Amino acid sequence: MSKHTHRRNGRILAIAPSSRGFGFAVMEGGETLVDWGVKSVAGDKNADALKKVGAMISLYKPAVLVLEDASAKWSRRSRRIRDITKTIAAMSATAQMKVALFTRNQVMRFFFEDGVGTKYTIARIIAMRFPEELGHRLPPKRKPWKSEDYRMGIFDAVALAITKQVRGK
Amino acid sequence: MTLSQLPNYLRKHRKRLGLSQNEVAFLLGAGSGAKACRYERFSREPGFRTALACEAVFQRPIRELFAGLYEEIEREVAGRAMELVLKTGQMKSDRQTARKRETLERIAASKSKKHHNP
Questions:
Q1: Is residue A3 part of a domain?
Q2: What is this structure's pTM?
Q3: To probe the interface with A, which of B2, B3, B37, B45 has the most A CB atoms within 10 Å?
Q4: Which of A5, A131, B39, B49 is found 20 to 30 A from A83 (Cα to Cα)?
């Protein structure tokens, strides 16, 4: 098998942790979506998620790992999500890759000029940008009495990856 | 920056088409979804017939589906072509040798050109 061990390969792995697991997206060269999906976790959620993220890192050998900055001042993410974000970011040192953290506001400002929008609008923009890959994964708009669809994790991760690709932080 | 490609992009194309690993395995005549999984995880290379079946299923050329593998093989072929170029240098110079040399130089150069001008 070919050895895709280059660190400077331009491949990005974006992880968007959620209460059920995490959404992920692997992008190459700015325009190509290589892999995407949602992984669910059970039991010790953080340990399970770390194991799955580790497996993805060893499979795709990304040059950059992108995460939401859950420790930002106005972040409303839970303690568990903050912990796992820190732990995943720390994995980058051993895997020799860069880590990019973006706050929710930075992602919003990237997609909307005035920085005001919704996650669902971003998901629709992304589904239009990758119609073949993600068009059929776009969930219906959430009703106020329903919890968030698990597929939104994919769009959160892709939004982070696109923000990184374009802003090149 | 040179983009080092993954050995194959079967998972990307399977997901794009909304197929499961079991369905792809069935279409490829590969038995169970476990085999399709091993191809996607780069732990096993498909045979020639299966690779052609992949092209038929995903409607993409083999060199695109197995981009990293193709890149590796192309590099090896270019290296061997270079060896032959050196050998033809010792041959008597006639039109056929010149033609052969031209072909081999083109094969040897194609890969290095792609590497230097990605």
A1: no
A2: 0.86
A3: B3
A4: A5
